[in-house]
Amino acid sequence: METSLSQQEFDYLFKLLLIGDSGVGKSTLLLSFTSDNFEDLSPTIGVDFKVKHVTVGGKKLKLAIWDTAGQERFRTLTSSYYRGAQGIIMVYDVTRRETFTNLSDIWAKEIDLYSTSHDCIKMLVGNKVDKESERVVTRKEGINFAREYGCLFLECSAKTRVNVEQCFEELVLKILETPSLLAEGSSGVKKNIFNQKPAQDVSVSGCCSW
């Protein structure tokens, strides 16, 4: 995946959403992808979002990536952000069993409830593989979940950046192979997915450093 030189010209605009329990590393994963940095971040309040311009498969893409809060008290605020998303990344922490259990108990149900695109591509990401000695969720469990729910699957480390780019690249490549999502992406400029106004107590910050 190459960063596009031009921020003005792009072939498609895709909206991606990061969901999962608080503390699984969604914000860190996003920061690692968009700025090549690693930081231990405090939990997201409401919704955060960043933009990255990339070239994948010969296409110039503008990715608007929304990072949602995992805490239950913010969940009603984030439901509207599923609207129009072409890709959804479900993140869990391989060292915390409950974050994996909640994928089926909470997050997969939310996708069914709130996602507006029948063809939306889902990806399952097991984060923090750098803590291998603390692992409690096996890779095989992740693979089995992904098969059951029809998701792409990767394990990664936002800290060491192992498989971070691959997470987004594989997701975007799959979106590019899906005609209905491609059509949505090409018309994204007209409907402007950036116009969604968050609730007053939701913090939204944009990053266009690429």
pLDDT averaged over residues? 80
Number of helices: 7
Helix percent band: 25-40%
Portion in beta strands: 15-25%
End-to-end distance: 13 Å
Arrangement of strands in the largest sheet:
1-3-4-2-5-6-7
| Order of SSEs | EEHEEHEHEHEHHH
Major β-sheet, in short? 7 strands, mixed
Low-confidence stretches at least 5 residues in length (pLDDT < 50)? Answer: 38-46, 189-210
Kindly provide the radius of gyration, computed on alpha-carbon positions and rounded to a whole number of angstroms: 16 Å
Class computed from helices, strands and strand pairing: alpha/beta
Question: Could you tell me the number of beta strands?
Answer: 7
Shape: globular
How would you describe this structure in keywords?
globular; alpha/beta; 7-stranded mixed beta sheet; disordered C terminus; 210 residues
Write the layout of secondary structure elements.
Elements: E1 2-3, E2 12-19, H1 26-35, E3 47-56, E4 59-68, H2 75-78, E5 87-93, H3 97-114, E6 121-127, H4 139-149, E7 152-155, H5 164-176, H6 179-186, H7 188-191
Describe this structure in words.
With 210 residues, the protein is an alpha/beta fold. The protein contains seven helices and seven strands, in the order E-E-H-E-E-H-E-H-E-H-E-H-H-H. A seven-stranded mixed β-sheet has the order 1-3-4-2-5-6-7, with helices on both faces. It is globular and about 45 Å long.
